[in-house]
């Protein structure tokens, strides 16, 4: 797995939804969002969103509707029309030609120096027949900083591909229960683990060259499609641990106070016995 160095632009798009923290911290109780989640999020969906900044953390909530037809914005310079989205397109490789429509990122988040902590809400369809059939492409990266990415579903979403990369820092990814597909985790110096709930639904595919692979959900038969077009997650850090779990899993946090209390009781008993 290779990751090109993103090109930096001085024209940084404003942060999208940094003021939505009250809702993003509320617990999720299922594979899909609560009724009328868009009203609670207090924001409108967008598509093909790019945030590419020189420094500083990226934090907030992003609502992506892959079915929105948003045209490529253009501006004029001395050479004529210039696609300003090439600022983000260039992140895929310096000097590359324009990205084909099928490879255009629905969400691209990158910071040169800072952490990333985001909620990504994917808008789906109430009617299964309304799906567009294309994968939703998501990219989250930092050159220096930890990353936490939470993906949540509104109704039945199309398959999505999520790429997460940092050169230095831990990575935590939370996925909806509807996720079905391969997970690839690469850590140069750290562990790669799935939660207990996710392990119960996963097939272990092995580890090689510091890369661990799983397939979540029913593994396709040998006669199935040779090119996987469903959900997919690729995560890489050169120095840090990688953790993946479901978005609605309850995490048992270590309680220092209770552990210290138990330790104190044990120490007290030992001290009392020693003086008898």
TrEMBL record:
Segments forming domain DUF7330: 47-249
A Pfam family matched in the record: DUF7330
Region (Disordered): 1-39
InterPro entries: DUF7330 (IPR055754)
Protein name, per record: DUF7330 domain-containing protein
Organismal lineage: Eukaryota, Fungi, Dikarya, Basidiomycota, Agaricomycotina
């Amino acid at each position: 797995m290779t990751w090109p160095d993103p090109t930096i632009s001085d024209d940084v798009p404003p942060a999208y939804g940094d003021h939505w923290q009250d809702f993003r911290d509320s617990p999720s109780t299922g594979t899909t969002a609560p009724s009328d989640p868009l009203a609670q999020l207090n924001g409108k969906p967008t598509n093909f969103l790019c945030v590419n900044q020189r420094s500083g953390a990226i934090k907030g909530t992003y609502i992506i509707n892959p079915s929105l037809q948003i045209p490529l914005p253009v501006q004029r310079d001395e050479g004529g029309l210039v696609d300003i989205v090439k600022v983000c397109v260039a992140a895929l490789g310096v000097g590359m030609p324009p990205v084909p429509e099928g490879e255009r990122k629905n969400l691209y988040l990158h910071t040169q120096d800072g952490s990333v902590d985001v909620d990504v809400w994917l808008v789906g369809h109430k009617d299964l027949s309304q799906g567009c059939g294309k994968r939703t492409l998501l990219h989250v990266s930092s050159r220096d900083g930890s990353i936490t990415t939470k993906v949540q579903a509104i109704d039945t979403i199309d398959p999505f591909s999520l790429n997460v990369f940092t050169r230095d820092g831990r990575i935590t990814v939370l996925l909806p229960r509807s996720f079905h597909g391969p997970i690839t985790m690469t850590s140069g110096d750290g562990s790669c683990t799935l939660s207990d709930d996710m392990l119960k639904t996963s097939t272990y595919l092995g580890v090689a060259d510091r890369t661990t692979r799983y397939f979540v959900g029913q593994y396709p038969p040998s006669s199935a499609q040779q090119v996987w077009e469903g959900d997919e997650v690729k995560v890489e850090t050169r120095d840090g641990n990688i953790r993946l779990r479901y978005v609605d899993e309850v995490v048992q946090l270590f309680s220092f106070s209770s552990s210290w209390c138990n330790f104190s009781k044990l120490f007290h008993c030992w001290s009392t016995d020693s003086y008898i």
